[in-house]
Specification:
By secondary structure, the protein is mostly helical. Helix content is 42%, strand content 4%.
Length: 113
């Protein structure tokens, strides 16, 4: 009887741990501010979060999660701990003008004779 209770407790604990892993938030390292980075990434405090934002401003968007290790204070171990929390989607492109009158004129093709 004790073994059944032990198995049930182990099963419940496993399900709880698995559900917290699935509920982990994600953060886009190319668009998030320092507060969001600090809140979501494990092992990243306010100074490292600000360093990520500063690196991104100086060098452009991250192309891979591994590139995050180029930020001072962030190593590959930190990247690996956070791999499932990191998103890399590029920032949205600016919307095209709705009115044709405000759209820039397209150049005409040159015909040579």
């Amino acid at each position: 009887m004790k073994s059944i209770h032990l198995i049930l407790k182990s099963l419940v604990l496993s399900l709880l741990l698995a559900s917290t892993a699935w509920a982990a938030d994600k953060v886009n390292i190319n668009t998030a501010d320092a507060a969001a980075l600090e809140a979501v990434l494990v092992g990243v405090g306010p100074a490292k979060a600000q360093a990520i934002v500063d690196y991104r401003k100086a060098n452009g968007p991250f192309k891979s999660a591994e590139e995050l290790a180029m930020v001072k204070g962030i190593g590959l171990k930190t990247v690996e701990k956070n791999r499932d929390r990191i998103e890399l989607r590029a920032a949205a492109a600016p919307a095209a003008p709705k009115n044709a009158a405000t759209a820039p004129a397209q150049p005409r093709p040159v015909t040579r004779r």
